[in-house]
Design goal:
The structure is a single chain. The chain is an alpha/beta fold and 136 residues long. It has a domain at 2-85 and 123-131: 2-enoyl-CoA Hydratase, Chain A, domain 1 (Alpha-Beta Complex), CATH 3.90.226. It is 48% helix and 18% strand. The chain has helices spanning 2-6, 24-28, 31-44, 61-64, 88-101, 105-120, 125-131; strands spanning 11-17, 49-58, 74-77, 82-84. Strands 1, 2, 3 and 4 form a 4-stranded parallel β-sheet that branches. The radius of gyration is 18 Å and the shape is flat.
Protein backbone atom coordinates (compact mmCIF):
# COMPACT_ATOMS: atom_id res chain seq x y z
CA UNK A 1 0.00 0.00 0.00
CA UNK A 2 2.85 2.36 0.75
CA UNK A 3 4.18 1.79 -2.77
CA UNK A 4 0.76 2.57 -4.27
CA UNK A 5 0.56 5.69 -2.14
CA UNK A 6 4.05 6.79 -3.22
CA UNK A 7 3.09 6.60 -6.91
CA UNK A 8 -0.48 7.85 -6.40
CA UNK A 9 -2.04 4.56 -7.52
CA UNK A 10 -5.57 3.84 -6.28
CA UNK A 11 -6.13 0.62 -4.34
CA UNK A 12 -9.11 -1.71 -4.76
CA UNK A 13 -9.92 -4.16 -1.96
CA UNK A 14 -11.95 -7.26 -2.85
CA UNK A 15 -12.87 -8.39 0.64
CA UNK A 16 -13.71 -11.85 1.92
CA UNK A 17 -12.61 -11.95 5.56
CA UNK A 18 -14.37 -14.23 8.06
CA UNK A 19 -12.39 -12.58 10.88
CA UNK A 20 -8.99 -12.85 12.50
CA UNK A 21 -7.73 -16.18 13.78
CA UNK A 22 -7.36 -16.53 17.55
CA UNK A 23 -5.20 -18.69 19.78
CA UNK A 24 -1.72 -19.06 21.22
CA UNK A 25 -0.05 -19.74 17.88
CA UNK A 26 -1.52 -16.56 16.40
CA UNK A 27 -0.39 -14.54 19.41
CA UNK A 28 3.07 -16.12 19.27
CA UNK A 29 3.41 -15.27 15.57
CA UNK A 30 2.31 -11.67 16.32
CA UNK A 31 -0.28 -11.74 13.56
CA UNK A 32 -2.35 -9.01 15.21
CA UNK A 33 0.62 -6.64 15.39
CA UNK A 34 1.15 -7.14 11.66
CA UNK A 35 -2.52 -6.37 11.08
CA UNK A 36 -2.16 -3.18 13.13
CA UNK A 37 0.76 -2.12 10.92
CA UNK A 38 -1.39 -2.81 7.87
CA UNK A 39 -4.23 -0.64 9.28
CA UNK A 40 -1.75 2.11 10.14
CA UNK A 41 -0.42 2.15 6.57
CA UNK A 42 -3.98 2.17 5.29
CA UNK A 43 -4.89 5.12 7.51
CA UNK A 44 -1.91 7.10 6.24
CA UNK A 45 -2.75 6.60 2.56
CA UNK A 46 -3.70 9.66 0.55
CA UNK A 47 -4.62 7.86 -2.67
CA UNK A 48 -8.21 6.78 -3.36
CA UNK A 49 -9.31 3.38 -2.08
CA UNK A 50 -12.33 1.34 -3.07
CA UNK A 51 -13.64 -1.65 -1.14
CA UNK A 52 -16.04 -4.35 -2.33
CA UNK A 53 -17.20 -6.99 0.17
CA UNK A 54 -17.67 -10.13 -1.90
CA UNK A 55 -18.67 -12.74 0.67
CA UNK A 56 -17.82 -12.07 4.33
CA UNK A 57 -16.62 -9.17 6.41
CA UNK A 58 -16.61 -10.00 10.12
CA UNK A 59 -15.06 -8.59 13.24
CA UNK A 60 -11.95 -6.46 13.36
CA UNK A 61 -10.89 -7.88 10.01
CA UNK A 62 -13.64 -5.84 8.30
CA UNK A 63 -12.23 -2.39 9.12
CA UNK A 64 -8.69 -3.75 8.75
CA UNK A 65 -9.46 -4.41 5.09
CA UNK A 66 -10.69 -0.82 4.59
CA UNK A 67 -14.23 -1.79 5.53
CA UNK A 68 -15.24 1.39 7.30
CA UNK A 69 -14.01 4.40 9.18
CA UNK A 70 -10.74 4.83 7.31
CA UNK A 71 -11.91 7.21 4.61
CA UNK A 72 -12.55 4.82 1.76
CA UNK A 73 -13.53 6.59 -1.46
CA UNK A 74 -16.21 3.96 -1.94
CA UNK A 75 -17.48 1.08 0.17
CA UNK A 76 -19.62 -1.42 -1.71
CA UNK A 77 -20.99 -4.88 -1.08
CA UNK A 78 -22.16 -7.79 -3.14
CA UNK A 79 -25.90 -8.36 -2.40
CA UNK A 80 -25.27 -11.79 -0.86
CA UNK A 81 -22.40 -10.67 1.38
CA UNK A 82 -22.47 -10.98 5.16
CA UNK A 83 -21.14 -8.14 7.32
CA UNK A 84 -21.13 -7.97 11.09
CA UNK A 85 -19.34 -8.17 14.39
CA UNK A 86 -19.08 -11.96 14.33
CA UNK A 87 -20.17 -14.85 12.12
CA UNK A 88 -23.68 -15.84 13.31
CA UNK A 89 -22.69 -19.50 13.86
CA UNK A 90 -19.79 -18.49 16.07
CA UNK A 91 -21.74 -15.69 17.73
CA UNK A 92 -24.51 -18.00 18.91
CA UNK A 93 -21.93 -20.42 20.33
CA UNK A 94 -20.17 -17.62 22.21
CA UNK A 95 -23.17 -15.66 23.45
CA UNK A 96 -25.64 -18.44 24.19
CA UNK A 97 -23.51 -21.50 25.06
CA UNK A 98 -24.67 -21.71 28.68
CA UNK A 99 -28.30 -21.30 27.65
CA UNK A 100 -28.03 -24.03 25.00
CA UNK A 101 -26.26 -26.38 27.43
CA UNK A 102 -29.38 -26.41 29.62
CA UNK A 103 -31.51 -27.88 26.81
CA UNK A 104 -31.68 -31.42 25.49
CA UNK A 105 -29.51 -32.06 22.41
CA UNK A 106 -32.50 -31.95 20.03
CA UNK A 107 -33.94 -28.80 21.61
CA UNK A 108 -30.51 -27.17 21.69
CA UNK A 109 -29.95 -27.80 17.99
CA UNK A 110 -33.40 -26.44 17.09
CA UNK A 111 -32.88 -23.35 19.28
CA UNK A 112 -29.38 -22.84 17.90
CA UNK A 113 -30.67 -23.01 14.32
CA UNK A 114 -33.42 -20.50 15.16
CA UNK A 115 -30.94 -18.09 16.77
CA UNK A 116 -28.47 -18.36 13.89
CA UNK A 117 -31.18 -17.59 11.33
CA UNK A 118 -32.41 -14.65 13.42
CA UNK A 119 -28.94 -13.18 13.83
CA UNK A 120 -28.14 -13.83 10.15
CA UNK A 121 -30.78 -11.28 9.19
CA UNK A 122 -28.64 -8.57 10.79
CA UNK A 123 -25.58 -9.50 8.71
CA UNK A 124 -27.08 -8.57 5.34
CA UNK A 125 -25.39 -5.75 3.44
CA UNK A 126 -28.67 -3.84 3.56
CA UNK A 127 -28.48 -3.73 7.35
CA UNK A 128 -24.82 -2.74 7.20
CA UNK A 129 -25.51 0.02 4.69
CA UNK A 130 -27.11 2.19 7.34
CA UNK A 131 -24.53 1.70 10.06
CA UNK A 132 -21.25 1.14 8.21
CA UNK A 133 -21.61 3.75 5.47
CA UNK A 134 -21.92 1.28 2.62
CA UNK A 135 -22.50 3.11 -0.63
CA UNK A 136 -24.37 0.27 -2.35
Amino acid sequence: MCLCDAFNLPVIFLMDVPGFMVGKAVEHDRILSLAIRFVEALGNMSTPTLTVTLRKGFGLAFPAMNGSGLGSSGLYSWPGAEIGFMDPDVGVNVAYASRLDQLSPQEAEAERTRMVSEISLATSPYEAAGTLELTK
